[in-house]
Amino acid sequence: MQRSNLLGKLLLALCMQAVNTAYAAPEQPNIIMIMADDLGFETVSANGGTPYKTPVLDKLAAEGLRFTNCVAQPLCTPTRVKIMTGRYNFRNYAVFGTLDPRETTFGNVMRKAGYATCITGKWQLGKDRKLIDHFGFDEYCLWWLERKSARYNNVGELIQNGKVLPGKKGEYGPDVVSSFMLDFITRHKDEPFFCYYPMMLTHSPFELTPDAPAGMTKKSPVLYRMAAMVAYTDKIVGRIVAHLDALGIRDNTVILFIGDNGTDRIIRGGKLGEHDWPGGKGSNFVEMGMRVPLIVSYPAGGVSGVVLDDPVDLTDFLPTFADLVGKELAKDLPYDGHSFAGRLTGDSDYKPHPWAYVGYYGSNRGDMSHFARDTRFKLYEGGYFYDYIKDPAHANPIRIKTAGKKAKASYKMLSAVLEDLKSQIPAGDEYTGIPTRVVSTKPGMHNVKRKTEAQGAQQ
Asked: Is the pLDDT of residue 348 over 70?
């Protein structure tokens, strides 16, 4: 009898081992992080923006997840520092065009998790090329920002794995860097890979793309030249999707698409639903400055056709990637973000983070404005409180004394968030509830203008 029980226990153990093997964690997904330059929320037609057309991104959104409440920093380098490190700018941003070598990036995290890593597109994080490997990227093809005129026409400004590409007449820079990434994917299709693609498009100058409509010239209205650049951005995303399909690895690849800040201020005439939506790059005081599209496609995750108003800020990406690949972050890595991986995999226990935060210095560290937001309301330091859905231009501050119960509850929660974060700011950093000088460019529309932003806005 005892021998029979022992045999039964042995068989049970073997069965359990077989079950655990059969239901082992799914294959680690590949991840492609695409970040377009100066492309605001309204430029993706799935978000309801006009006159833009983005059929590829719209299809990804329809088959995946579309987030409507993602906020970036209002300028490029602050965004890049924040998204790559998962940390707020007050912890690690000091100088425009620089990422502190002491920081840990999502490239480092992914490489440590055993991924082949690649970065292609726009760098703008320091002139020492050794930093690329230092920040966790095995291979690269990058525009180095040494000559502004070379952003789109490669004339010897693209650097690929240590060598300056000679450049040929007629080369279109975005095609060169995206083709490099496709080649990298082909070479690493049988192992997990991570690609970070900070695009050169759609930043000024608003030049004609290879697909510019007949009759369009450099003198055509800038809104329509911008729309053509957005269309080409969408086309490049389509190439990436088609390449993954051809290699048979599409299902197990997570594609994330985001903008780095709002659309250039020179762009006027765009709309988002019933709202005018002029470019607001550089401004932390209107939705147009920092609300950006976020679309995620992960077929193996099993979630499709979902629209989410979860508050997401750029610190959330690093921990999300770590969760997706099963990499526990180091206990001493002081990241600020909150993983939203549960949304991508349909985790029934996942609960979205209730707020997102932006603290913004402009192009160089100086006086700072900051806000926290939930799914409808937004509170700035100094008590400036807005319903950003009804009032994206922030023309009508809410008087908390006469506000409704939902607004008051939101105000109380967001006030506590700002107070807590303010207590973590290094001594010497100054906070401002509103900019020192606000220029009204049209009724109800406010744009921040500081001397320190002039140089940064050109990058």
From this structure: yes
